[in-house]
From TrEMBL:
Catalytic activity: propanoyl-CoA + hydrogencarbonate + ATP = (S)-methylmalonyl-CoA + ADP + phosphate + H(+)
Cofactor(s) this protein requires: biotin
Chain coiled-coil ranges: none
Protein's name in the database: propionyl-CoA carboxylase
Taxonomic classification: Bacteria, Pseudomonadati, Pseudomonadota, Alphaproteobacteria, Hyphomicrobiales
Domain (Biotin carboxylation): residue spans on this chain: 1-453
Enzyme class of the recorded protein, top EC level: ligase
Domain Lipoyl-binding: 589-668
């Protein structure tokens, strides 16, 4: 068996591999850059080796630095995780020459299937249905436009060595094809050191379903069911589940057998994933690509099969035969995965960086009702989210006997997940979990674009939810006031009395109510006639309130903002102001403070680096015209003009680092 594994990766996946290695009694080595000196994976590993500056092209994807770390530590095997060098054939070949075991597929399979163009040609030769497109490499933007015109819009412009949504653009017309080609090329070069680009037809409303395969070095290849990965944003997966709510047994079997045949054609061993685009109307599936590595979303497969895929990869790499056959693979229950990203959903999901001032995931394990919560993460409270790497913080997973129960378990887990200090997508994930369309399983890759056409602005509470949250705010206020009147040293006949009548202003509406403390609960009677009985152990200072309201348990995040109470629950982010009736009446007379006018300014929407300015001072720009490019977390973001105007002043230069809302340029009136 392998004695010591070096994990050529960082963050969540490095921590994930270390957990299984420890279970198997195998020692581990972490590598880290300047940005990761205090990272969780460094703390968890038995040894750690510094490999260079923060940018990945100076550390994590420099093969010589990884090889040097192997020599320093005597590691006899390497697990590449996903991303970085995980699908780099030259890296696998270098390990082979050094006599180090690569915990992954053979070099030939990586070369054949890791390259999207080659893999599509091989799939076509094997009789696998593929999406129409141009299989050759594209040299410049003019050729990209010509080919796109021939294929017919919309088209997908993709990096040949891409993955994780990097180096991918959808173009709906010639100008977008031109811009998308250059951005994809730049992202591909920065992320993978390979700027080759190809173009294929974009199927507008498909499902993205992938098959997990697992093979050993003795010729056995199995499929372990499928994962539904259709909930995507900017071609990056956000929510995954296993199995798919769409596939029937016959289609699952056909896709699985085709995936196995493709893997066998290239002599595949280890874990891998064959991705398909599935036509939701005609039930046809088309080969998309094969990922010759462990997928980010592998936990949902583990939860429904009971297998540890990292353990299987290690055993296969050590030369062991698979201890089970295709007939032994059973899909049990349902699993959901939500990716927690460091991005601000209220700012069009732009990257967010900074320190995690609070990071409290929900408790992992099996609950009393049999549901399971799992959280794969690579961060600690107090840690910093860097601009140099992927914005994923954690992967929250739930399992239950059926899909709706798994979704409800996920909703409850998201409610209990506390993250502060950065922008994050927890409220968005909660919103999706509670949408009727998602719960029905009628999803496509266009789901987010269709359901959130104008972006995400939070969830507006219905009348019942607003009443529950108003009652929670009233109880919190009642306990704060009760503590305040206990201050010692006051004059006896000047002790303040705790009132019962309050007005809660929430979501633009006033809720007049009366609060009465009972034995073990608090009764909240609304002027409108409804009455709620709340049982909660919340005390001042706590940031999470668990409240039982009529048999329903709510986990509400609580943040005191001066006299106001911020409440977050099920994607709602509301500020409650609890006042006495007299103060509430006076508050209505207060003038509203308007935000400053920024309509004549282009502000940086995220922390990042200006990589290009496309206009000059005095130039007249049209709506939709590119103004500047900002790079953050390995993604290029083109900032465009919202309307026609003249550039008055440009205050930045390429290479300059900017914070959120920092000025880039001004326009004349």
């Amino acid at each position: 068996m392998i004695q010591k594994i070096l994990i050529a990766n960082r963050g969540e996946i490095a921590c994930r591999v270390i957990k299984t290695a420890k279970k198997l009694g195998i020692k581990t080595v972490a590598v880290y850059s300047d940005a990761d000196r205090n990272a969780l994976h460094v703390e968890m590993a038995d040894e750690a080796v510094f490999i260079g500056p923060a940018p990945s092209n100076q550390s994590y994807i420099v093969i010589d630095k990884i090889l040097d770390a192997i020599r320093q530590t005597g590691a006899d095997a390497v697990h590449p995780g996903y991303g970085f060098l995980s699908e780099n054939a030259a890296f696998a070949e270098a390990l082979e020459k050094a006599g180090v075991t690569f915990i992954g597929p053979p070099v030939g399979a990586i070369q054949a299937m890791g390259d999207k163009i080659t893999s599509k040609k091989l799939a076509a030769e094997a009789g696998v249905s593929t999406v129409p497109g141009h299989m050759g490499l594209i040299t410049d933007a003019d050729e990209a436009v010509k080919i796109s015109d021939q294929i017919g819009y919309p088209v997908m412009i993709k990096a040949s060595a891409g993955g994780g949504g990097k180096g991918m653009r959808i173009a709906w017309h010639a100008e977008e094809a031109r811009q998308g080609f250059q951005s994809s090329k730049n992202e591909a070069k920065n992320s993978f050191g390979d700027d080759r680009i190809f173009i294929e037809k974009f199927v507008a409303e498909p499902r993205h379903i992938e098959i997990q395969v697992l093979g050993d070095k003795h010729g056995t290849v199995l499929y372990l069911g499928e994962r539904e990965c259709s909930i995507q944003r900017r071609n990056q997966k956000v929510i995954e589940e296993a199995p798919s709510p769409f596939l029937d047994a016959a289609t699952r079997k056909a896709m699985g057998e085709q995936a196995v045949a493709l893997a066998k054609a290239v002599g595949y061993h280890s874990a891998g994933t064959v991705e398909f685009i599935v036509d939701g109307k005609q039930n046809k599936f088309y080969f998309l690509e094969m990922n010759t590595r462990l997928q980010v979303e592998h936990p949902v497969t583990e939860l429904v099969t009971g297998l540890d895929l990292v353990e299987q990869m290690i055993r296969v790499a050590a030369g062991e035969k698979l201890a089970f056959g295709q007939g032994d693979v059973k899909l049990n229950g349902w699993a959901i995965e939500s990716r927690l990203y460091a991005e601000d959903p209220y700012r069009n999901f732009l990257p967010s960086i900074g320190r995690l001032t609070r990071y409290r995931p929900p408790a992992e394990g099996t609950s009393a009702d049999g549901t399971v919560v799992r959280n794969d993460t690579g961060v600690l409270e107090g840690g910093e989210i860097s601009m140099y790497y992927d914005p994923m913080i954690a992967k929250l997973c739930t399992w239950a006997p059926d899909r709706l129960t798994a979704i409800e378990a996920m909703s409850e887990a998201l409610d209990s997940f506390e993250v502060e200090g950065i922008g994050h997508n927890l409220p968005f994930l909660s919103a999706v979990m509670n949408q009727e369309r998602f719960r029905s399983g009628k999803i496509t890759t266009a789901y987010i674009a269709e359901e959130f056409k104008d972006g995400f602005t939070g969830v507006t509470p219905d009348a019942a939810s607003a009443e529950k949250l108003a009652a929670v705010a009233a109880v919190i206020n009642h306990r704060l006031q009760a503590r305040a009147i206990q201050i010692s040293g006051t004059i006896g006949n000047h002790t303040r009395k705790l009132g019962k009548d309050w007005v809660v202003n929430l979501a633009g509406s006033d809720h007049g109510l009366t609060v009465t403390e009972g034995t073990g609960n608090t009764r909240v009677a609304f002027e409108a006639g409804n009455e709620l009985v709340i049982a909660t152990d919340w005390q001042p200072g706590q940031t999470l309130a668990h409240a039982d309201i009529g048999g329903e348990t709510l986990a509400v995040k609580v943040d005191l903002k001066g006299p106001a109470i911020r409440l977050r629950w099920r994607g709602m982010d509301l500020t409650a102001r609890v006042r006495s009736p007299r103060v509430a009446a006076l508050a209505k007379l207060m003038p509203e403070k308007l935000p400053p006018d920024t309509s004549k300014m282009l502000l940086c929407p995220m922390p990042g680096v200006i990589t290009g300015v496309a206009v000059k001072e005095g130039e007249t720009v049209e709506a939709g015209q590119a103004l500047a490019t900002v790079e953050a977390m390995k993604m290029e973001n083109i900032l465009k003009a919202e309307r026609r105007g003249t550039v008055k002043k440009i205050v930045v230069k390429p290479g300059q680092s900017l914070a959120v809302d920092e000025l880039i340029m001004e326009f004349e009136g």
